[in-house]
């Protein structure tokens, strides 16, 4: 069997052209990196004075405490957003018009509302503590977005699956829980993880309401005059940690997706051989 491709295999000239483009792009990227490093060295961002605070135990404890507060706020917001999203999606898929309209109004309102406005409203107008105010704002926004993700995922399942389940006499809750949601989850998983990454990054808004999260701790260090305002070193410490946590969530999503794909594979089942003398009904009859 001959190999087939959706495009022509590049010839020698095309390969040389692609190699030239790749080398040129690599040179541009290296030039940008070199220019950024030059600016950092030229503005004395790598001097010992600016990096000295990170050697102190008190500064390290502040950063770790801020990181723990960030993860705590994210954990609360993630769990509550998933629960709220599932509840609102059930409302939007309801057969009752009033419930469907109420859920739609709730979703559209809080999905369009800026997260920072909701956090400030809960914190200032309702006089709620920083952590509950931050979690409430993140939950209302991300829960509304996840509701649309859940609803779209359920509706993306082939209509025949729903009709076949109803034909078997299953109730709507059984159809949703045993047929539609398990199939839709595989399609929804990337969007769910993407929204959780947004929630993780938005926890940094907590520093605006004096919540002592990771970015708030970095801001206190960066504004310290005793160390020459080490703003860039703080960014170089905090940014990779945020990026690493987001990559960890993406890796978790990939791992869960692989587990789901493996669970769908059927295993070989041993079938007992037919015993001698066993005949199907009517097999032993002789017809004229």
What attributes does this structure have?
288 residues, mainly alpha, 72% helix, 0% strand
Shape: flat
- Number of helical elements: 10
- CA-based gyration radius: 29 Å
Regions with little confidence, pLDDT below 50 for 5+ residues:
none
Mean pLDDT: 82
Structural class: mainly alpha
Beta content? under 5%
What is the helix content? over 70%
Give the termini separation: 50 Å
Compute the number of strand runs. Answer: 0
Q: SSE string, helix = H, strand = E?
A: HHHHHHHHHH
Taking the sheet with the most strands, its summary is: none
What does the model show?
72% of the residues lie in helices and 0% in strands. By secondary structure, the chain is mostly helical. The longest helix is centred in the N-terminal third of the chain and has 36 residues.
Please summarize what this structure is.
The chain is mainly alpha-helical.
Task: Tell me the layout of helices and strands.
Layout: H1 12-42, H2 48-51, H3 57-92, H4 97-112, H5 115-125, H6 130-155, H7 159-167, H8 172-202, H9 214-222, H10 231-264
């Amino acid at each position: 069997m001959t190999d087939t491709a959706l495009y022509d295999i590049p010839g020698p000239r095309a390969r040389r052209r692609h190699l030239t483009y790749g080398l040129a792009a690599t040179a541009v990227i290296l030039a940008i990196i070199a220019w950024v490093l030059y600016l950092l060295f030229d503005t004395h961002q790598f001097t010992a004075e600016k990096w000295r605070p990170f050697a102190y135990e008190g500064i390290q404890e502040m950063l770790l405490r801020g990181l723990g507060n960030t993860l705590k706020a994210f954990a609360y917001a993630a769990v509550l957003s998933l629960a709220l999203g599932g509840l609102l999606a059930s409302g939007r898929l309801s057969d009752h018009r009033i419930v469907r309209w109420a859920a739609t109004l709730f979703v559209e309102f809080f999905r369009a509302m800026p997260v920072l406005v909701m956090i400030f409203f809960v914190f200032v107008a309702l006089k709620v503590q920083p952590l509950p105010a931050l979690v409430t704002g993140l939950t209302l926004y991300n829960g509304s977005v996840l509701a649309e993700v859940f609803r779209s995922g359920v509706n993306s399942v082939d209509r025949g699956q729903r009709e076949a389940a109803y034909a078997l006499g299953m109730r709507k809750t059984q159809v949703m829980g045993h047929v539609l949601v398990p199939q839709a989850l595989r399609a929804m998983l990337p969007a769910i993880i993407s929204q959780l990454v947004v929630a993780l990054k938005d926890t940094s808004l907590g520093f605006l309401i004096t919540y002592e999260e990771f970015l708030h701790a970095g801001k206190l260090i960066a504004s310290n005059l005793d160390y020459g305002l080490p703003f860039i070193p703080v960014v170089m410490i905090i940014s990779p940690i945020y990026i690493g946590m987001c990559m960890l969530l993406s890796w978790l999503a990939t791992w869960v997706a692989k587990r789901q794909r493996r669970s769908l594979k059927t295993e070989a089942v041993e079938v007992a051989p037919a015993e001698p003398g066993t005949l199907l009904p009517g097999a032993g009859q002789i017809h004229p």
